């Protein structure tokens, strides 16, 4: 179980909205990555969005530790690390493309 049994304001439609937002962001990233060369502004937007996700992950883990179970904290942490890796690799790719 990822979440502890505590009252959470994020009802099912909120979770579905979050999931839809992640899918929409993925489709946007794919579309922005199609032109060759990739536009600098688009790449910076994606990097900033990824870093925002990482900051949001840290806020959830530090400010709301009772929201997640131990496994949930591990899962959130691992996802945050993957997204941080994406942001760093995107920044390196942007720097090397100039």
Produce the secondary structure layout:
Blueprint: H1 12-32, H2 40-63, H3 70-97
Describe the structure.
It is a single chain. This protein is mainly α and 98 residues long. It contains three helices and no strands. Helix 2 packs antiparallel against helix 3. The longest helix is centred in the C-terminal third of the chain and has 28 residues. The termini are far apart. The mean pLDDT is 84.
Compact overview of the structure:
The protein is mostly helical.
Quantity of strands, as a count = 0
Secondary-structure element pattern, one letter each:
HHH
Specify the structural class. mainly alpha
Low-confidence stretches: none
Indicate the percent of residues in helices: over 70%
Number of helices: 3
| Overall outline | elongated
Q: Ends: how far apart?
A: 45 Å
Q: In what range is the share of β-strand residues? A: under 5%
* Mean pLDDT figure: 84
Report the major sheet: none
Radius of gyration from the alpha-carbon trace, in angstroms: 16 Å
């Amino acid at each position: 179980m990822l979440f502890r049994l505590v009252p959470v304001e994020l009802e099912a439609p909120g979770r579905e909205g979050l999931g839809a937002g992640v899918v929409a962001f993925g489709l946007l990233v794919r579309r922005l990555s199609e032109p060759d060369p990739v536009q600098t502004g688009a790449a910076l937007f994606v990097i900033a969005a990824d870093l925002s996700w990482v900051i949001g992950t840290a806020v959830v883990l530090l400010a709301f530790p009772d929201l997640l179970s131990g496994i949930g904290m591990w899962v959130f942490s691992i996802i945050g690390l993957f997204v941080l890796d994406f942001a760093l690799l995107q920044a390196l790719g942007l720097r090397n493309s100039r």
